[in-house]
Amino acid sequence: MALGPQIPNLGAIPAEGPACLTLVGVGPGDPDLLTVAAVRAIQAADRVAYPVAREGAEGMAAAIANRWITPEQLRLPLLFPMVAEAAPRVAAWHAAADALAAAVAAGERVVLLCEGDVSLFASSSYVQLALRRRHPGCPLRLIPGVPAVCAAAAAAAGSGMAWPLALQSEGLLIRPTPETPAELLQLLERAAGDGTVLALLKLGHRWSWVRPLLAARGLLEGALFAQRVGWPDQLVAPAAVVPATEQPYFSLLLIRQGWPDVLP
User: Residues in the chain with pLDDT < 50?
Assistant: First the structure.
């Protein structure tokens, strides 16, 4: 009996496979969180590309995957400026897509490393869109990575804090931290109304006003703070113990406003 369209088994890139581009999620920071598929793709690559915020920088994704990158492999740092203006970012995505497609066209197997997952708030997603518009014939595959929100919940459990991301019929809403208290209040009310756990990324300097807002609503005790998950200086703690001072850009918050009726 036919079961619908068959999905090809891409598997891992063989050691002598054809030229292609693979977007590889390397997880939030801990090299041990790379998937087997990610490691195999990196090891089989002729060229390893990775984002950098400025010329000469190593890049966080490259640092995470460094143990699997050999001196024989070519490196391709791609500049993705962290600016608010659209034009420099669009130009960077186009330049990256052109450079990656050119390497594949020259017969190379190329990987583009991406911190976290390749499809969740990722620079590689914009590169993927640029490739499909500018170089639609470039062979492309994606290998997902562990998102920081999942790693944070797991790290909490390892520290004695039971923090499942979502249970039963609960929803999970992942958003960048809003810029204003009014926007955050709207998100909190929406999440409370439909039983959704709220994950706020890129907390940074906003924590100075987010913490007192959560305290005023009695939500600090049900929130988990995580900073630089997977890195040596990782901090995962109840939000109530974290002071209302500016935090690093790679900080996140998990907010639970209730629990399902049926629990162990």
Answer: 1-15
pTM of this structure: 0.88
- Domain parsing of the chain, residue ranges: 20-146, 149-255
| Class of CATH domain 149-255 | alpha beta
Q: Say what the pLDDT of residue 168 is.
A: 86
Reported as a single tens digit per residue, the pLDDT across 174-199 is 999 999 999 999 999 999 999 999 99
Tell me if 138 sits within 8 A of 18, measured CB to CB: no
Residue partners of 199: CB distance under 8 A and separation at least 6: 149, 165, 172, 173, 174, 175, 252, 253, 254, 255
What distance in Å separates the CA atoms of residue 200 and residue 234, rounded to the nearest whole number? 17
How much is the CA Rg of the chain, to the nearest whole Å?
20
Q: Is the dihedral of CA 144, 149, 151, 157 positive or negative?
A: negative
Where do we find the tokens 């002598």? 16
**Which CATH code is given to the segment(s) 20-146?**
3.40.1010.10
